[in-house]
Amino acid sequence: MHNVISFMARIFLGLIILGLSSYLWAGETFPGEKWGKVISPDAAGWSSERLKNADDFARTLKTDAYLIVHHGVIVHEYGATTRAINIHSIRKSVLSVLMGIYSDRGVVVLNKTLSDLDINDKERLSATERQATVQQLMQARSGIYHPAAYEVPEAAVARPTRGTFKPGEHWYYNNWDFNALGTIFQKFTGKTVFESLRDDLAQPLQFEDFSYSSDTHFQYESASEHPAYIMCLSARDLARLGLLMSRNGRWKDRQIVSEKWVVESTTSYSETDIPERGYGYLWWVNVRQKSYSANGYKGQVMIVNPVRDLIIVHQVDTENDPNKNVSGGQFSELLQRIINAKLTEG
Q: Does pTM top 0.85 for this prediction?
């Protein structure tokens, strides 16, 4: 848990810098079936020389890929941006978008309680815990501190004692909430998270590198009835999701998820351990600069700055090498170099 918060603190500093220059953009550029560098970095107001400096620094890290999308165009990419990589906790922000799609349709109902939905677990939930709502789980405010699958050791140590807080009273970055939401999503929709990822995002957004059969799996563990929903996505496919969010849920001429949901899900409902860094519906929110990010273990990051119509994706392939890690400090320095490469407003 400490590592997650420390990493987020560093990202938050970068998000402040990203938001210093505000520029409203009404551009309509979207990728087709293939991404393409429509214009060079220099033509887009970025410094090729400074981006090379960022690349040189990335080579000293464990970075496998990073990618910059500005106004709907890839202006720079580094490394294996076409390789589907375990996105770790970015999966939670993906689920937030899927929840929004079905909330818009009236299928997902946020004020339903766990009792309403008959959700329980191996160590039975108390009557108070079962009064937690879907919305409170989305906000990581359920007050349910049951052991969870796919939980890093430090998070298990930091987990509050059962019954310490009632639903809605306290924010805690809680894998139990996030995993149970996968079960709840299937109960509401009749689809698994992965089926919805394939049908409701990968197909309309034209993911290039996603394989339903090989890039998704449930992680079942003895700690809980609710598995983690593990997904692998490439940097350039994640960037499509980031662009969807940056464009208020619209993809070309189709509203995939409502602007209302985009705003609601990226509004901060909780103060966290970093000043002015809040938490929405499975998104980390920069309260001051109106930008937000999805983040995962050991250096997975997707930053969305809708004011500047800018998406930055960073990935570390921990599947092929579990010891790989890009720390918060290292990513913060790389992000600073990327930001320094932006020469013009907008």
A: yes
